[in-house]
Specification:
eight-stranded antiparallel β-sheet; Jelly Rolls; mainly beta; 39% strand; 3 helices
């Protein structure tokens, strides 16, 4: 890795630095098939639905924010990524993706690794974000300033640097709180579009370009990620 950075010079240094910390990157550009391929170095590939074959739990391939994406019906669709040591992130984290919600109901998760880290809609708010981390006790950050609308693309992100949790919408910070502790690790799978807790909650809409880092990206880096998707 250091050799690659040396060869490429300073132009791509920040990009290469962040790629080193990228634990999962699901572009969702396949536009067919039963697999959401991981474009990080970790091969954390996801399966559409409950079986390797076509079934009722499969989200549908559709037009995404960048190339193709996945459309979730809000009833029983999900992508499941098996647990891996690279997804057991304990110190710093960034979770980000593009979403285009068709509805915005309580606890609908965009990314959910139960009892570890979650980015979802906050309950009782009709379109505001919630980030949640188990540090190891459940620690939540709710936004109450930026209400999302249906059928609009948004870039959303959650970061944690060991002392602060931050939520971002379209490259701008919308909420923060003090928080400390190590993120709990476990054997639970990572889901896209599904919250397995309690009565279960299913995202309804389109998701694209999902990334999970073991590093807290800065506000400038979050803004750059947003700008690159425009």
């Amino acid at each position: 890795w250091s050799q690659n950075m040396h060869i490429q010079g300073t132009v791509n240094t920040l990009e290469d630095f962040n790629y080193f910390y990228l634990e999962g990157y699901w572009k969702l550009d396949e536009n067919k098939g039963q697999t959401a391929n991981d474009s990080s170095a970790n091969n954390n590939h996801g399966q559409l639905g409950s079986t390797p074959n076509v079934d009722d739990n499969d989200p549908n391939w559709t037009t995404g924010k960048i190339n193709s994406g996945l459309s979730f019906d809000g009833i029983n669709d999900y992508v499941k990524i098996p647990d891996d040591d690279t997804l057991d992130i304990s110190n710093e984290i960034t979770i980000m993706m593009w979403i285009k919600p068709s509805r915005m109901e309580d606890y609908e998760s965009f990314v959910h690794k139960d009892e570890a880290y979650v980015l979802q809609f906050a309950p009782g708010t009709d379109g505001y974000l919630r980030g949640a981390l188990w540090l190891p006790s459940l620690t939540m950050l709710d936004d109450n300033t930026t209400q999302l609308s249906t059928n609009v693309w948004y870039h959303v992100a959650l970061t944690y640097d060991g002392s602060q949790m931050r939520l971002y919408v379209n490259g701008s910070e919308v909420a923060n709180r003090d928080a400390t502790g190590r993120i709990q690790t476990n054997d639970n799978p990572l889901y896209i579009g599904y919250n397995p807790r309690g009565v279960k909650y299913w995202f309804n809409g389109v998701i694209d370009e999902v990334k999970v880092y073991k590093h807290a990206l800065t506000s400038d880096e979050i803004q750059q990620e947003y700008d690159e998707g425009l």
